[in-house]
Design goal:
Layout lengths: L1 E11 L2 E11 L15 E3 L4 E3 L10 E3 L38 E12 L2 E12 L5 E8 L5 E9 L2 E3 L6 H14 L3 E5 L7 E8 L3 E12 L2 E2 L2 E8 L7 E9 L4 E5 L21 E5 L5 E6 L3 H17 L10 E2 L12 E9 L6 E5 L2 E5 L10 E8 L7 H15 L6 E7 L3 E3 L14 E2 L2 H12 L9 H16 L6 E3 L2 E3 L5 E8 L10 H11 L8 E5 L6
Parallel strand pairs: 6-16, 24-25, 24-30, 30-31
Antiparallel strand pairs: 1-2, 3-4, 5-10, 6-7, 7-13, 8-12, 8-20, 9-10, 9-13, 11-12, 14-15, 15-21, 16-19, 17-21, 18-19, 22-23, 25-26, 25-27, 28-29
Length: about 550
């Protein structure tokens, strides 16, 4: 999915208008970067006219609300209007011309019902200068989430937004910045489709509040539903609070709040430490629970120091921290940066559960008696020079966990690649070319961990040949009949194995073929037909927090 989201709020002394753009395009392997050039609105001095094209939504202006904003109904549409905007009082201004933008309050509210979550992030920003200034806030959303609304409050007025073209939004925003008026611009790229950048141009001596709402369907993984909230204000916030409310149709059987995740750690389990600052309050009917997290400045500073220590251990020069940016050249991320995670599960009826609402139904079922499928896993591991520092440590830690979780009926192979591609031999044999896959016995798993522990980053990134070799292994093994063994008296043959490729890398190809479109086309053709295997990728990079 490619998501392009642009928002513009432009203010003149007594006339205010907001435009909000959203373009959604779906693709299988990649999405074309061609953008439509049609103009969909023209702004004049005293009025705004709109030429409404396909996929353009308009929302109305309403009074500012102090409490948590309701999630709007998608059918609640009206025309954008205008209203008066007043600056803040003089007694809370700062005459210092270098005073940075200040985030005074950050609130996060999540409502979970029937494993579906609606989340709102509300941030208050204050410009103490007499002149307008621009600030940037980077927000990381879950991969499966989609934005359902954006509003901005200027003074006492709150403005909803409507969808519009990308280029037009950017142009109007730039014009507003030149005039020194309040404006906001939200954008994302296809590659980083879950990271949204909100740019504020706030008039001097005024406050601005934005509310971003998004929704997602929770997925049950390892026996629990995981709800992750990315907290990255980039600065210490005087008031910060997170509230997650769960209301389910079945009894909540598991509820955990692990410590804030401040790195590329794997999913927490019941054995991991819990967040002592999170307050859990269960309802009387055992189907409801409320989790509250209100880190004060001392706790935020402690969490920021933990993240800073992990960052310093990384030797990656391209390390990038996302968060609030005041626009200062020497700005550093001083606030906490991590994921607040709530894990829960509900009682699973034997025959599943069917829920009906407004003519739609959903069927939940999680069978426990089915045995896991036997699989042949090919691990394709990047050890290029850019994997140095913390990334190679994370790769080794991830592989130790993954190898330990293999079932005794599974087979696996390990491919290491940098400028060259190496298929590691895990078992002694007379003909080493034929022994490139082994059963997941304790001895072979230990041998695999030993190989991974000796990885040293160097060289370039030869993605094409590495994945091509993995597909060759899959295609050679899937149709062989001599891969059979006995476990507890039960025979498992090679043609019963489900093949998968697990691909771990941190960057773009730099060796052999480097054009990603041609790589995707070639590998898609090769990995087709009866011999195809699903490919799962784990990326290490600047947005992995």
């Amino acid at each position: 999915m490619k998501v392009k989201l642009n928002l513009l709020c432009s203010t003149k002394r007594r006339r205010t208008c907001i435009v909000f753009f959203l373009i959604l395009a779906l693709g299988v392997s990649y999405v074309s970067s061609t953008e439509p050039k049609s103009q969909v609105s023209v702004m004049k001095r005293r009025w705004i006219g709109a030429v409404i094209c396909a996929n353009i939504l308009l929302f109305g202006v309403h009074s500012a609300s102090v409490g948590f904003p309701n999630i709007p109904n998608k059918d609640d549409l009206s025309v954008v209007g205008v209203s008066i905007y007043n600056p803040i009082d003089d007694d809370i201004t700062d005459d210092d011309p270098t005073a940075p933008m200040k985030m005074t309050h950050m609130r996060v509210r999540s409502e979970i019902a029937m494993r579906y979550v609606r989340t709102a992030i509300i941030c208050n920003v204050h410009n103490p200068r007499r002149k307008s200034q621009e600030a940037t806030f980077n927000l990381l959303l879950p991969d499966t989430a989609f934005i359902s609304g954006f509003t901005m409050t200027l003074g006492k007025e709150t403005y909803d937004a409507y969808v519009k073209e990308k280029e037009v939004a950017k142009q109007i925003y730039d014009d507003a910045v030149k005039q020194g008026t309040s404006a906001a611009h939200v954008a994302t790229t296809a590659r980083d489709s879950n990271q949204f950048t909100i740019k504020f141009n706030v008039e001097g001596r005024t406050n601005a509040t934005y509310r971003l709402r998004y929704e997602e369907m929770l997925v049950r993984r390892k026996g629990v539903y995981n709800h992750a909230i990315n907290l990255n204000p980039g600065t210490l916030v005087p008031k910060m609070d997170v509230v997650v409310h769960i209301k389910e149709s079945q009894k909540i059987s598991v509820l955990r709040v692990p410590e804030l995740r401040t790195g590329n750690e794997i999913d927490a389990t019941e054995k991991d430490a819990q967040n002592t600052k999170a307050v859990i309050k269960r309802g009387n009917n055992e189907r409801e629970a409320t989790i509250t997290f209100t880190p004060d400045l001392a706790e935020q500073k402690r969490l920021a120091e933990i993240y800073a220590e992990k960052s310093m251990r990384s030797a990656d020069p391209d390390f990038f921290s996302i968060g609030y940016d005041s626009g200062e050249e020497v700005n550093k991320n001083e606030g906490l940066l991590g994921q607040f995670i709530v894990q829960y599960d509900v009682d699973q009826p034997k025959n599943g559960e069917i829920l009906v609402n407004d003519g739609y139904f959903v069927h939940f079922f999680a069978p426990k008696s089915l045995p896991p499928l036997s699989k042949y896993a090919v691990f394709v591991l990047d050890t290029s020079g850019s994997m140095g520092g913390n990334k190679i440590s994370q790769l080794k830690k991830a592989m130790n966990t993954i190898l330990s979780d293999l079932n005794q009926r599974d087979y696996f192979s390990i491919i290491e690649f940098n400028s060259r591609v190496t298929v590691h031999t895990l078992k002694e044999a007379k003909d080493k070319k034929k022994i490139q896959h082994v059963i997941a016995s304790p001895e072979n798993i230990a041998a695999g961990k030993n190989i991974v522990s000796r990885f040293r980053p160097s060289g370039g990134t030869n993605i094409l040949h590495a994945l091509e070799q993995a597909m060759n292994l899959i295609q050679n093994v899937v149709h062989r009949q001599n891969l059979s063994h006995y476990i507890n008296g039960t025979e498992t043959k090679g043609n019963e194995l489900e093949p998968i490729i697990i691909f771990l890398t941190d960057g773009d190809p730099t060796v052999a073929e480097t054009n990603t479109d041609r790589i995707i086309t070639y590998l898609s053709e090769k990995n087709s037909g009866e011999k195809q295997a699903p490919l799962f990728s784990l990326a290490f990079g600047k947005f992995s927090i």
